[in-house]
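Exercise (ungraded).
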Amino acid sequence: KNEVEQSPQNLTAQEGEFITINCSYSVGISALHWLQQHPGGGIVSLFMLSSGKKKHGRLIATINIQEKHSSLHITASHPRDSAVYICAVAQGAQKLVFGQGTRLTINP
Amino acid sequence: DAGITQSPRHKVTETGTPVTLRCHQTENHRYMYWYRQDPGHGLRLIHYSYGVKDTDKGEVSDGYSVSRSKTEDFLLTLESATSSQTSVYFCAITPEAGGYEQYFGPGTRLTVT
């Protein structure tokens, strides 16, 4: 079993829908990251959080340390949000363990 | 943009040849990492460095070596490339000592035929 599990693996939605991507982990962590990767593109850090909730524009990330679970929400989704979203947990300062990613496609 | 560049960006090579990938950063960050990204596996750590001449292995280090002779450059070498090393390779840095953030380079797509 992977230490970091994301669901769903693939998600297709219509423009404007509310999107939720989930991440569960089984190890103790120092922080959790959400990353975005567009097709053929590099990897961009969206959020790093160790408790509570963070918001940036239409993106919201939450984490529940007790339940070892995090969610990434996208409100009013847009085709440009189509990308792979990756959850990664930090075990100590230098080690990141990555989920396999969620491929999101938003259709116009 | 954390000032990270990778070279080459694309490379096709033959099995058995040596290959060196370069990661260059402009902001004197101490920690640097090499990852590979493969379908079905996500990102996996190959090697990392915590200073000049200080490196350590990650979870998939077999077949790879690294060197860091100056702060700004972290080199990944495949001594004798194999088809299983066909992958996209990402370099990353941590911007502050003891921090958890990592910023990624643009990636190098390596194909071993």
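Further reading is listed at the end of the chapter. For now, observe: The two ends of chain B are 33 Å apart (CA to CA). Residues 2 and 89 of chain B are 17 Å apart (CA to CA).
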